[in-house]
Amino acid sequence: MRWLQRLPLTAVVVAIAMLHVAIGAALAMLLLRWLPVWAAIGAGVICTLPTLVWSMQRAFAPAHALFRALAGTVASYRDSDYGFGVAWAGRGALGELVAAHNELGETLRAQRLSLVQRELLLDTMVQNTPVAMLLLDPNDHVVHANLAARRALGGGRRLEGQTFSTLLADAPPALADAFARGGDGLFTVGDGENEEIHHLSRRHFRLNGRRHELLLLRQMTTELRRQEVQTWKKVIRVISHELNNSLAPIASLAHSGAELLRRGQTERLPGALRTIEERARHLEGFIRGYAHFAKLPAPRREPVQWRAYLDQLRSQVEFVDAMPIDPAASAHFDPAQVEQALLNLLRNAHETDGDPTQVSVALRRAIDGWRVDVLDRGPGMNEAVLANALLPFYSTKRNGTGLGLALAREIAEAHGGRIALLNREGGGLCVSLVLPD
Question: CATH number of the domain at 302-436, out of 3.30.565.10, 3.30.300.20, 3.40.50.300, 3.40.47.10?
Fold first, then answer.
């Protein structure tokens, strides 16, 4: 019956039915000699019916086997098993169905292989990264921990299934304190030569509809120490340059003053002494600025009325209001520190824009606090300067210390806020100081 697979199923069924009709008719003609017509026809049908049923079963048997095979492979696909295929020698609609089914299996196999390779690559990267990674479920149990996390918290043992609170109980106190504070941050383990600096990062997300937490613990000792050395080198260069600029003329003028005294030309001494005093005061202000930046205290917040506060600030440096200010508007911040930050921003604006009427302040209500914009119509900043302007000791001014914007940024971040710089349309710069409620 294998040859039947090569014929269309409809043709096979019609051929078998016609054959059995012919056999039944011939048998009925033979029985008409002895039986009435109705009896002869009934006898012919009865005699051919079993063979017709048997022939139909034989004809449909390959198709039934094919359908069972297709159902079995579909069940295997549902179980992520793509190692099965279906063979069918026939053509027509069933042949097209089998070909499409096998093509689907090949596609799923290729996708499964690609997915396995990606999972293997991802697992290799996660396991071998120096960053300790832990995934916690809603019940505080460790779902996954890479090799770095095992070394940091479990002495190399597997951590999956353990509660994170149990692991913290055996961890260094500094690590436990960092987790207790919540959020991201730096902490130090050990002291002296064995001191290690780590950064903790915590992120929450939903996995299969349940809230999970991803913890990332990165050792930053080497990187921070390298950055610290570079920063100190830059500080020393800036301070050396500024000291040279002040001490060299002071030494020269002191020598010149001594010569003038020796010659009796005292009428020129006041000018030399004024220059010495000017350079000394400049140096004093420079050192005071560095000390202020290094010893910025924690902000002491208090309620402040914006209208009166900005009016008092205007008595020290000139600016105009870019928009009306509600007299009842108030906020909570350290007035002395924010005043220092705004003074730095306003003085920078005056230095870049010679017209004081073009320096303005705009106060806006932000989503989570207040935004103070200091605006000017100077030349603005190019991309390189915008990217580095907030860094300590970075300055494009010949005699600049690079501390004005950096100090303003420190003050803003100490309040939980931020500073942003943006070039204005039509020229100029907008420096935004954002202070949360």
Answer: 3.30.565.10
- Helical residues (DSSP H) of 198-268, grouped into ranges: 221-263
Query: Considering only CA atoms, which of 413, 404, 414, 412 is closest in space to residue 289?
Result: 404
User: Domain-by-domain residue ranges, the chain?
Assistant: 2-111, 129-219, 224-294, 302-436
Q: Beta-carbon neighbour count of residue 261 at 10 Å?
A: 11
User: What is d(CA 82, CA 185) in angstroms, rounded to the nearest whole number?
Assistant: 47
- Where does the pLDDT of residue 224 fall: very low under 50, low under 70, confident under 90, or very high at 90 and above? low
Do the two domains 129-219 and 224-294 of this chain adopt the same fold? no
Question: Mind listing the pLDDT tens digit for each residue in 286-317?
Answer: 677 666 666 677 788 899 999 999 988 888 88
137 three-class SS: coil
Architecture of domain 129-219: 2-Layer Sandwich (3.30)
Confirm whether pTM is higher than 0.70: no
Instruction: Give DSSP secondary structure letters for 97-118.
Output: HHHHHHHHHHHHHHHHHHHHHH
Torsion of CA 59, 63, 64, 65, to 10 degrees: 110
| Cβ-based burial of 206 (10 A; exposed 0-12, middle 13-18, buried ≥19) | exposed
DSSP letter at 269? H
218 bridge partner residues: 199
For 224-294, CATH number out of 1.10.287, 1.10.260, 3.15.10, 1.10.4160 equals: 1.10.287
Q: Check if the beta carbon of residue 383 is closer than 8 Å to that of residue 394.
A: no
d(CA 255, CA 260): 9
Residues paired with 196 in a beta bridge: 189
Q: Rounded to an integer, what distance in angstroms lies between the CA atom of residue 185 and that of residue 361?
A: 34
Distance (Å, whole) CA 432 – CA 437:
16
| pLDDT attached to residue 307 | 92
**How large is the average pLDDT for residues 32-52?**
57
Residue 264 φ/ψ region, left for φ over 0, alpha for ψ in the -120 to 50 degree band, beta for the rest: left
**pLDDT tens digits, residue range 92-124?**
676 777 777 777 777 778 887 888 888 888 888
Label each residue of 33-102 as H, E or C.
CCCCHHHHHHHHHHHHHHHHHHHHHHHHHHHHHHHHHHHHHHHHHHCCCCCCCCCCCCCHHHHHHHHHHH
Specify whether the CB–CB gap between 303 and 335 falls below 8 A. no
Structure tokens at 220: 């930053």
Q: Could you tell me the pLDDT band of residue 277, with boundaries at 50, 70 and 90? A: confident
